[in-house]
Amino acid sequence: MAKTSRLYAGGDRVAVLLPLALPGSYDYLVPPEPEGGLAFEDGAFVEVPLGPRRLAGVVWGPGSDGVAAQKLRPILQRFDVPPLSAETRRFVDWVADYTVHPPGLVLRMVMSVPEALRPPRALPAYAPAGGEHPERLTPARKRVLAVLADGRPRPAGELAKEAGVGAGVVKALADAGLIVSVMVAKEAPGDQPPPAAAHPGPALSPEQAVAAERLREAVGGGYSVTLLDGVPGSGKTEVYFEGLAAALAAGRQALVLLPEIALSAQWLSRFHGRFGIEPHVWHSDLGRPQRRRTWRAIAENRAKVVVGARSALFLPFAELALIVVDEEHDPSFKQEDGVFYNARDMAVVRARLSQIPLCLVSATPSLETVVNVRAGRYGSVHLPDRHGGASMTAVELVDLRRDRPVKGAWLSPGVRTAVAASLADGAQTLLFLNRRGYAPLTVCRACGYQLPCPWCSAWLVEHRLAGRMLCHHCGHTAPLPDRCPACAATDTLAACGPGVERLAEEVAQVFPKARVALATSDTLPGPAATAELVRRMEGGEIDIVIGTQIIAKGYHFPHLALVGVVDADLGLSGGDLRAAERTFQLLYQAAGRAGRGERPGRALVQTTMPEHPVMTALASGDRDRFLAAEDAARRETVMPPYGRLAALIVSGADAGAVEAAGNALAQGAPKAEGVRVMGPAPAPLALLRGRHRRRLLLHAARNVAVSPLVRRWLEAAKLPAGVRVQVDIDPYSFL
After folding, report:
1. pLDDT tens, 217-243?
2. How many CB atoms lie within 10 A of CB 151?
3. Cα 313 → chain centroid
4. Residue 331: partners with Cβ closer than 8 Å, 6 or more residues away
5. What's the predicted TM-score (pTM) here?
6. Which domain holds residue 78?
7. How many Å is the Cα radius of gyration of the chain?
8. In contact, 461 and 500? CB cutoff 8 Å
9. What is the DSSP string of 430-499?
10. DSSP-based three-state secondary structure for 396
11. Residue 465 forms part of a structural domain
12. Residue 155 maps to which CATH number?
């Protein structure tokens, strides 16, 4: 594919890439007379025939001469949408090549809203009728006419909402002939005024001002990567807002990636306070109409700032000038379905291909990023202090071997005392437990039976509030049983271990007058629910919030003074090479929610392993010492970032076929210096969504090009029908 766009004339051959799992593009003929005067060029969105179907695709370059012209079918139409930029097309090709996935599957992420290619449908609206208005009008009618004074027609519902009147007022004005009904194209959110780059922001500290100037200078200065490294509460968001302002001042677009959709609620409020308007939002919870409008506004350069989840990286930006990855260390940026990719790493690639700056933001940067800074590949700015003179949270370890909870409880006496003191002081408390539901395991006391998921190698988790058993891996649900499915005994099923719901039960018993809220993905299903929780926290309507990782990062609650980590050891098991790093990052972030206002913060961390390096690092606040130890361990074992990994996950409905495929892959494994292949072995989740799974893991030296090695490996393999192989370059999960 060429780096510059070509124009094609009628009869020319062009390669069209379709958003399907196909090995490459298909050739078509440009029709002799371009429809509506629209040019056919590289990146043009077109509709083509494929068998009996009509599919949308993208002109990917000139066609080949391998097929006779009379056998080629013509393009059906060219959509009236700006062409996909050369930078985005190169990005699609690069991601496909690196992740060992068909380019059409990567393009599918770009073309995630096919209906956005077609013009917006016309809707009935109202416009001023013109002429003289009667002298005597009710205040409500005057407000409607005042809204329409700018000349822009509005649908009836929108008009009534803006004017603060009922639908009957609008209808009465239409009946009186003072407004007229017209048909207009459905308006896209990009038609709103862009965020104001010159809108005044808060006063920055000297350290913040230096960091902000670095980002402002980077915009328009070509490719660069800068780590914005600051302790929790140091004002990192306000600093990178200055970079967004520079992109806006240049009339270009900016993208901010957040790891959790829930984080957007408070973030949007801060953005509105800085720029006077909300940005465009992109995540899976948006309705199809809003996704269509937003996608088109981005492609037409009307959406200037986009904040979204990892999939927003693949939107068709027309004039992208800056990418920000907030909480860059967060594992949520890793996608493990469809095309496996890490949005943080792919953001680096997109910035390089587009020759624009990238800002990575974190209080606990990943080891990969730290190593890149140390090697000089990335720049770095550091914010060592909390904004406004707030002190850092004091972290104390609670040794559960000595300060044991009472039988059947999960909060130690020391933590209970601290919560009581916080309540007496009028402060808020966060109790952090990264385990959803009521209990992680349900066991029959009579026969020892454990309730399994029928589709996964996992136990069903009791969700008592919903009255259901739930598998957290495939989503299978079942009603709470009233007797043991194995021995039929009644009243013998016992919950083992704590989940947030069980912890809430204990809190209600110990602190009956406290106002308690749960914050999990079950209780906060979308941004609206999260925004309501934030409002209640900021308004002092909650005394104790009990939550999982969804509430442990990114939030600013000025009244929160105490954090209690209930089970700090939870993430340290499982054999994950990043287990210690992830646990440190999550607990450090959770502790950092406290003390961000006038009250000093305190974090109590319950653990049975106070001597563990993660725990000692948390207590001492010596992040750099912990990272140095983690770095040394990875270097010694040649693990990322000092080595390369690639996982092959073999799955199918037939266990025998899966085992045969795994063995065949092992026999044909690459044999090269610095490369070894482990497996096949049953995956920890050997059954997932009804499919049996085996894993192979390729480990290689840092200088080995893993992607082409894996591609040749798969091309040479002969696999049974019904068996699927998923490739995960740079895996984060080993389940």
Report:
1. 999 899 999 999 998 888 899 999 999
2. 7
3. 10
4. 578, 582, 732, 733
5. 0.86
6. 7-89
7. 29
8. no
9. EEE----SSBSEEEETTT--B-B-SSSSSB-EEETTTTEEE-TTT--EEEPPSB-TTT--BS-EEEES--
10. strand
11. no
12. 1.10.10
